[in-house]
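The step that takes the researchers longest sounds almost clerical: writing a folded protein down as plain text. The outcome of that step, for a single protein, is printed below.
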Amino acid sequence: MLGQIYLYMIIVYVLLSWVPNARESFVGNLLAKLVEPYLSPFRKIIPPIGGMLDISPIVALFVLQFVIQGIIAVVHFIIPG
């Protein structure tokens, strides 16, 4: 549940980059404080394509989804039913 909320927060944060000055709003600043610590390692590893297109959030979303599914599988293994 919390993992899904965080996924949506990342998606909203990325979509805010398409709206002029949206990241400077209260919501944009709040999301930046919550999401940037997770996204920054991916941005260091994955350079923008053509200098403009940042695909690191997409990779970060896939990794986060993979981790969430792994945690769910472990919990279901430990606590069957």
